[in-house]
Batch of 2 targets.
Target 1
Amino acid sequence: MDGEEESEPDEGDDAEADAEVADATEADAEAADAGGDDGLREIPHDEFEPTGTFAIAFLYLGLLAALWLFVYFVEFLGRGPTVVG
Amino acid sequence: MDIQKHEKLWLVAGVAFIVLLIATVVYGTVGAGVSMVDDSGGTIAPDEIPDDDRFGEPRVEHVEGDEYEVYVVSRMFIFQPGTVEVPEGSTVTFYITSADVIHGYQLVGTNVNTMVIPGQIAEITVEFDEPAEYGVVCNEYCGSGHHDMEGMVEVVPEDEWEGA
Ligand SMILES: [Cu+2]
């Protein structure tokens, strides 16, 4: 992975090393913008926010629930008479 | 185990959806009283139909009070009796069997629907609250005349009913 340097930024003790790391990070960001092969971005587990995907998935689930309620209560139970025994 | 927070929410929503499905069906059974067609009607061999007390003479029978029983024989390509007449406010139990192949018996536009299997007696109880006319169709393909196989259930006002 190319975030190796980022993950251990304290490895270098001197300022020069830190500067190098900063440069590397900038370069990474640029690569990411350019959509290059090296533009990988690591996101911590709990900072992953797939808001759009989540919204679509919930919209779909909500639609399923609403349609189920319609089919069961209106189209099925509403179509009397029904078999009671 | 570390589950991502969105995934956790999605799991909860998924389980809630399953609970919703089960709860509505439980309500339909316990609250609304919807029943399934089962094998409680028993069996009868097709060649015994002519000599049977109930199916030898397919008919509507008044049991007592609001209770009626209807014995129906299905065969290619008719229902006997073709027209079933019952009064409003009645609780009607249909006993339906087949003299030949598998047929269906459905009051069109309602949930009153069963397969009619030779050798088997389908038993379904229905409450008819208001006067109405229901077309009956065979909804299991049973041969060349299947599309013509139809009947009628007429729910008439109490004073107009002139049955058994
Ligand atoms: Cu048929």
Note: Chain A touches chain B at residues 45-46, 48-50, 54, 57-58, 61, 64-65, 68-69, 72-73, 76-77, 79-85 (CB under 8 Å).
Target 2
Amino acid sequence: MEVGSSNSSGQLSGRAVDTRGKHRIHAQLNRLQQEARFLEEELELLEKMDNASASCKEFLDSVDSKPDPLLPQTIGPVNTTWDQWFERPKEAKRCGCFIL
Amino acid sequence: MSVSELKERHAVATETVNNLRDRLRQRRLQLLDTDVSKYSAAQGRSPVKFGATDLVCCRTLLGHTGKVYSLDWTPERNRIVSASQDGRLIVWNALTSQKTHAIKLPCAWVMTCAFSPNGQTVACGGLDSVCSIFSLSSTADKDGTVPVSRTLSGHRGYVSCCQYVPNEDAHLITSSGDQTCVLWDVTTGLKTSVFGGEFQSGHTGDVLSVSFSGSNRNWFISGSCDTTACLWDTRAASRAVRTFHGHEGDVNTVKFFPDGYRFGTGSDDGTCRLYDLRTGHQLQVYHQANGDGENLPVTSIAFSASGRLLFAGYANNSTCYVWDTLLGEVVLDLGELQDSHKNRISCLGMSADGSALCTGSWDSNLKIWAFGGHRRVI
């Protein structure tokens, strides 16, 4: 970054302050222009996009296709580990940590 | 070019971006001909019905002496790591309820923790702005202090969330109050990629949460205080693949849907939302009006194995709604069941096989919930 000349009291000259503001605004402008390009690309994609109802159908099909241990009613196959939480522990081990 | 000319161009560019955003919003509204709950009702679907003792608290994990802030399951073998205000990570065998490790952290202000895919290391992060890695085979001293095996430093704000890349013990992603996410190489401690930040497009507020896709480990979602969620490709950090709008408050939590092609969010605006990755459509809003009309922030979410159930913790005493994601209705509140938590649920996680949900709370406990009723298999 350019450092402007300073006057006898040590203050930076107006030129250095102006340069710093200019760089920041330039960087922000670049980001905005980049953002505009991304948004235009997205708009183009949306022109050919399906309605939400197509995505909703996919969603239902996905949910219905997977077994789920937490549902009262589910498709199979059932995994034998689903009910492990209600079985007697195989062995009791001493707690391994020192604290508390 | 002079400063005033630049400022003029800046104003024009801002106007262009705002116009484009408006056009996008309008176009998306045109495409939203229905949502999941209307579509499901039209298909004649009825809500999930739980019996009074179907979902039960089958374990309470006692040991922390402060609020639990974060938890993570191993991909296998039913172990959980939790992080607490008491400045410790505890590793639990969820089946036996026993603690295998209680690690005293160098910085007590921890916000997040994660298990590595092989279950041999844990990571945590918080207000110290670093992510610390601990090997579970290291020996702790009597106080529980374990040497840090790697420190991932470089964020310029708090580390809000950390997640290992699926099946990659050497890589993890962190999200931060410095508005970026970072992909780290754990073996070298160096940044591989930075997502967002000062010089790249990305979030414009603190990033609070990340979630990886189970089906594509190159994709992850981030949620931010700027009210958006972003989809990122780890191979292309210069820009988000897509930004998802809709929330009206901080997006506190994001979670991929089990099939990896949709994701859920939870926000300070009191809603959870479901988004479609490919199209960007907001497929559903999950919102239940509170008695006094105020929006209760959503603190954390988790999907059941099929995605039919969405568990959501809220910022009040113990409420944990179980949403039927198809019908958009609350079908259960874990906070009203026997043995429920006595304070806010701050974190949720589903076990790898989907048979158990773990909840962590400000009451300092973790609880395991499973289905103990009669299951009908069709």
Note: The longest strand of chain B covers residues 55-61.
